[in-house]
Sequence to fold (376 residues):
Amino acid sequence: MTESVNGMLTIGYDASVTLAPSPRGIARYALELLRALLALPRTDLRFVVLLNSLRHEAGPQHNFLLDDPRVSLVRRNLPGPVVVHGWRLARRPTWEQLAGRTCDVVHGPANYIPPSRSPVVVTVHDLGFLRDDEAQLAPLAGKYFRAAFPRQLPHVARIITPSRFVADEVAGTYHIDRQNIDAIHSGINGDLFSPQGGMRTDQLAALGITRRFVLAITAHQPRKRADWIAKVAASCARTDVQFVTVGMPEGLSDSRLVSLRDVDDGTLAALYASASAVLLTTREEGFGFPVLEALASGTPVICGRNSSLAEIGGGCASYADEDTPEGFAKALGSVLDHPPHEAQRAAWIEHARQFTWRSCAEQVARCYERVAVPRN
Fold:
């Protein structure tokens, strides 16, 4: 434990992952959490923000950091893989060497654990890599964490997870006291994801969408089960419905699907608001942003009752009773046959509003305090 100076807390924050050209998933979490932390009505927090990348520069998404007097930006142009492998293998370079100063707390919001003389907090987003085929895992993702977590996680000062599901799994897998893990739900942008702002017919037609549609959110990871989407479409046997996918991997396109490889946030929000339903075939999520994004848009979402999804979706999501493409198709068909009424939509929107970045940031800030300030 370390004492803060004059009641101030200086937080070291590794935001390097946010340098990705289109922040998604963990990168979005790291960026939005930092934005929310700086928006808190507190004057006792200071941040040393590390942005390290050999290939990428800060972009418009970092503008909120530039003129904030509470932020000291540290820019490094070191190869990211070399740095994180050094953290795992030799515990070098230390945070102090990278940032040029000591902080009261150092936070690794993207699973990576910076070695430091100060207390270290790490956000662990999920342990899905333990169940995926290792041959399909990138060396800086699953393979890396399989090697790093058993050695490093038991020694950090505090672990943050985005759900109770992940917190319980981390505790059981790595024999960590559950009291040292804070399950803090992430937030969503309620201004972006809302029932307003759906697409006009001509805008949808420009994307190849010519009738009512189901929006399927997926990605290339095996746990997303992107190959199930075409199977669900075939089992659903609804000729009046298109299936529009976002994030569909190459080689999995199907004549029944309209595949949008990548869309910006505004287009994604408009698709949520315009869809008849949202389909999420994943077998595992640490949090499940699409569930809340759909509900915030007043759109029914169909997912499995697995991992964190039931925790996040609560009584508002529609769950497949059988974890098969046919089970998802049955649940989807029921939703399409019985469109939600306004009271249901209002309840979904209210549920989604409970998940805010401000609430997330407030809890994370309290986590920093517990680590940095000795208990009386």
